[in-house]
Design a protein that fits this description.
single chain; alpha/beta; Rossmann fold; 12 helices; about 45% helix; globular; binds thiamine diphosphate; binds magnesium ion
Length: about 325
């Protein structure tokens, strides 16, 4: 018998179905992007596959009307949960003028959308961390009750920006949630070659904040950890470091061939813990995700993905002169 673990987190059956639908939507958009890339239609893909549970579980634990997110390039699940649409993500993949992230200027994965408080990031990894700390400080100065949520890979947690941001946030007890999405690789470099500590979350000790490692394949575990961290932040008790452990199910990007540095048996083994399959089986065992609900959900998602693809493919590119804008003051 599967135990109901979501009711005690104050999540209704509708909430968990909505979490699952968001995870599945992210996966289906991502899969479509790979096909479009291999068909020569879009230049680049950087995947969320394997990390949807961590992303969606975390986003659902935040106040999606007030909090700020500073996602990293894999966070399609976070931005979908915060209101970005499939169509907008496809416009970005096709680098079209209407792409809300950058009008087709940036590579895909540089999410930014003011109305949904999704703060754009730069290509150097982890530069979003000090920005999240600054926004939390601004929120406090303006007496707002917001928290900021910032993510980064485990490889990126070696970058100076992480350490400077974590230290400042802890000293000033700012409401920042640092979430490391540990997918066990930084491009070709496995975890053991990146860091000498057992857990990224142990780094919290050095800054004087709570740190916790959770199963990133379980959206409910991530939800609980992020909810606790958000509550602490809003109470004025400062930041938290969460490490969500998962596995990168795709190559690093559409330009990477992971067969050159990892055994494909290892990938096949990790696929047994695919967060989408695991959460689906949890919901099916509780009879929340029935066959008919699942059928309707998949149809709804595939219609969105198809419409988004068709719209974005047909949409116009920006005028070439547009590239000269926003560089110098006019
Ligand atoms: C400062 C900086 N150094 C190097 C790179 C090149 N780079 C892009 S992604 C990446 C790997 C990051 O690995 P990790 O932080 O574990 O994130 P993951 O891609 O595994 O999600 C590197 C080295 C970069 N973008 N920025
Ligand atoms: Mg990584």
């Amino acid at each position: 018998m599967t135990e109901n673990r979501h009711s005690s987190l104050n999540l209704t059956n509708e909430d968990v179905l909505s979490m699952y639908e968001t995870m599945l939507l992210a996966r289906k958009i991502d899969e479509r992007m790979w096909l479009l890339n291999r068909a020569g239609k879009i230049p680049f893909v950087i995947s969320c596959q394997g990390q949807e549970a961590a992303q969606v579980g975390a986003a659902f634990a935040l106040n999606r009307k007030e909090d700020y997110v500073l996602p990293y390039y894999r966070d399609m699940g976070v931005v979908l949960a915060f209101g970005m649409t499939a169509k907008e993500l496809m416009l970005s993949a096709f680098a079209k003028a209407e792409d809300p992230n950058s009008g087709g200027r940036q590579m895909p994965g540089h999410f930014g959308q003011k109305k949904n408080r999704i703060v754009t990031g730069s290509s150097p990894v982890t530069t979003q961390v000090p920005h999240a700390v600054g926004i939390a400080l601004a929120g406090r100065m303006e007496k707002k009750n917001l928290v900021t949520f910032v993510t980064f890979g485990e490889g990126s947690s070696n970058q100076g920006d992480f350490h400077e941001g974590a230290n400042f946030a802890a000293v000033h007890k700012l409401p920042v949630i640092f979430m490391c999405e540990n997918n066990k690789y930084a491009i070709s470099v496995p975890y053991e070659m990146q860091v000498a500590c057992d857990k990224i979350s142990d780094r919290a000790i050095g800054y004087g904040m709570p740190g916790e490692t959770v199963d990133g394949n379980d959206p409910l575990e991530v939800f609980r950890a992020v909810k606790d961290a958000a509550d602490r932040g809003r109470r004025g008790e400062g930041p938290t470091l969460i490490e969500a452990i998962s596995y990168r199910l795709t190559p690093h990007s559409s330009d990477d061939d992971d067969r050159s540095y990892r055994e494909q048996d290892e990938v096949a083994e990790a696929k047994k813990n695919d967060p989408i399959l695991k959460f689906a089986s949890y919901l099916k065992n509780l009879n929340i995700l029935t066959d008919s609900i699942e059928k309707e959900m998949v149809e709804r998602i595939m219609q969105l993905v198809n419409e988004a693809t068709e719209y974005a493919e047909a949409a116009p590119y920006a005028d070439p002169e547009h590239a000269l804008k926003y560089v110098y003051a006019e």
